[in-house]
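Hi team,

As requested, here is the filled-out complex form for the magnesium ion run. I kept the field names the same as last time so the parser does not choke. Let me know if anything looks off before we queue the next batch.

— J.
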Amino acid sequence: MSLKHRVLPDVRRACLRALLQSSRGVRIIEAHNGLSALVASTSYLPSENGNRLEFDGLWISSLTSSASKGLPDIELGSLERRLETIEEIVHVTHKPVIVDGDTGGEAVNFEYFCSKLEQIGVSAVVIEDKQYPKRNSLCWKASHTLEDPKVFAAKIQRGRSVLLSNDFMIFARLESLIVNQGVEDALARARIYLLAGVDGIMIHSKERTIDQVHAFLNGYKYLCAELGFRKPIICVPTTYNVVTDEDLFRWGADIVIHANHLLRAAHHAMQQVCETILKNNRSLEADELCTPVSHLFELVGFADVVARDQSPAEILSDVFNADLTTADCTPCQPSVKAAV
Ligand code: SPV
Ligand code: MG
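And here is what came back:
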């Protein structure tokens, strides 16, 4: 129960647009549950100019949300189960959240999903232009079928039609490079989705080299110039991760997402710990691979709970800036409300 990082939905939702307007690249890291969201939100490095180097927001990946449940990434889970994970994450982070919406499913499902995400305070959803049910894009052997771009554009418009705010963003994810249809097809689809009113584009690739993504980013500049408006663009350098985030921003990306790294890191560490305990017939040697329990207590707010248990009146008086030990503590006391 970490209550330190709560942000009201309207405030949180608007954060991504504000970051995008701040004219610097936005760096996003994946989260798949409350704990990974806490790690993603609280990790930082001191930087040379005295500012903290930290991620700007979180990506709730379909690959890692399903893998963390022991499931393949094939749009298996219900929207309701997905929303549970999203709420778990949103409750523990103050950072803006982008949700991977897979294909969005049927238009009516997508309308429902968008309305729920907007309500929770998620800043953006990304849907991919493949047919439902999709297969994860990083798999070379899987067969992927692209959606008719006009059908996909209509789904985007259906999602937009239910929104109550101007803050929530819908990104169209282009899968042309995943199915080897090339940069021209990706640009043609981008044009259709931009004209349909999408808030931004994600270009995805499973190539190890940057060439195609680089060509797309160049073509996107010309496309936006021709259309007379520009919407932000997201890159996901999982396979072409020799390039730096800085390079991608220089070439025209607005958002870079590191899409699955916390789950892969957790899996790797878990496997190492299992093997170390089996090998040594005890857990002592695994200690150095594990976070101390006290750090977990701190991170998930248990240390705060214990402190509150020990001196509730003292902590309440801190919170309300008043001595409540002798006061009449009915919740709606005007003096207490004023102090809050
Ligand atoms: C995800 O993180 O679930 C994505 C990106 O959709 S990828 O797995 O690369 O397709
Ligand atoms: Mg996904």
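Two things worth flagging: Strands lie at 26-31, 45-46, 52-53, 57-60, 97-100, 124-128, 169-174, 200-203, 233-235, 255-258. The CA atoms of residues 266 and 330 lie 46 Å apart.

Thanks,
J.
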